[in-house]
Amino acid sequence: MEAGKWEQIRDQKLANPASRARYEQKRDALIAVRRVLVAMDEERERRHLSKTELASIAGLQPAAVRRLLTAEGTNPTLRTVVGVATALGFELGLRRKSGTRNGARSGRQSGRRTRV
User: Fold this and answer.
1) What CA–CA distance (Å, rounded) separates 99 from 44?
2) Rounded Cα gap, residues 24 and 60, in angstroms
3) Coil, strand or helix at 114
4) How many Cβ atoms sit within 10 Å of the Cβ of residue 66?
5) Is the pLDDT score of 56 beyond 80?
6) Measured on CA atoms in the order 34, 40, 44, 47, is the torsion positive or negative?
7) What's the rounded Cα separation, in Å, for the pair 71 and 12?
8) Residue ranges per domain, the chain?
9) Is pLDDT larger for residue 83 or for residue 10?
10) In terms of Cα–Cα distance, which of 73, 69, 39 is closest to 54?
11) Class of domain 3-115
12) How many CB atoms within 10 Å of residue 50?
């Protein structure tokens, strides 16, 4: 299929606001995951650690760390990400995106940050 035809199909699908919102949410999630993984790999390199050495420090299988840091489109488990991040001295945290409603179900407003 030629690029122009693909763009037309994509544009038709994304004309629907619900479809566009799902697309943007997935895209943003993939970008966020990639940013975290790149930061962890840069820190690994800064420390002159091989992926096997990092796996040993994190208590993980070397193959899991290799997949985490080299595979495109990876969907790592949270346990693996936390293990590698902790081994590199990172603290992972969650914070509400600016401009989003906090606690839609509970109605509570909180600026709390959750750390792992």
Assistant:
1) 34
2) 32
3) strand
4) 15
5) yes
6) positive
7) 31
8) 3-115
9) 83
10) 69
11) mainly alpha
12) 13
Instruction: Classify 76 as helix, strand or coil.
Output: coil
Phi-psi region of 107 (alpha: psi -120 to 50; beta: other; left: phi over 0): left
Please tell me the predicted confidence (pLDDT) of residue 12: 87
Look at 51-55, 82-86, 98-102 and tell me which has the smallest mean pLDDT.
98-102
Average pLDDT over all residues of the chain: 85
The pLDDT score that the predictor gives to residue 84 is 96
- For residue 75, give both structure tokens: 């969907």
What CA–CA distances, in Å, run from 114 to 8, 33, 60? 42, 18, 24
Amino acid letter at 108?
Answer: R
Q: Which amino acid is at 50?
A: S
- What is the chain's alpha carbon radius of gyration, rounded to the nearest angstrom? 19
Summarised one tens digit per residue, pLDDT across range 4-21 is 888 888 888 888 889 889
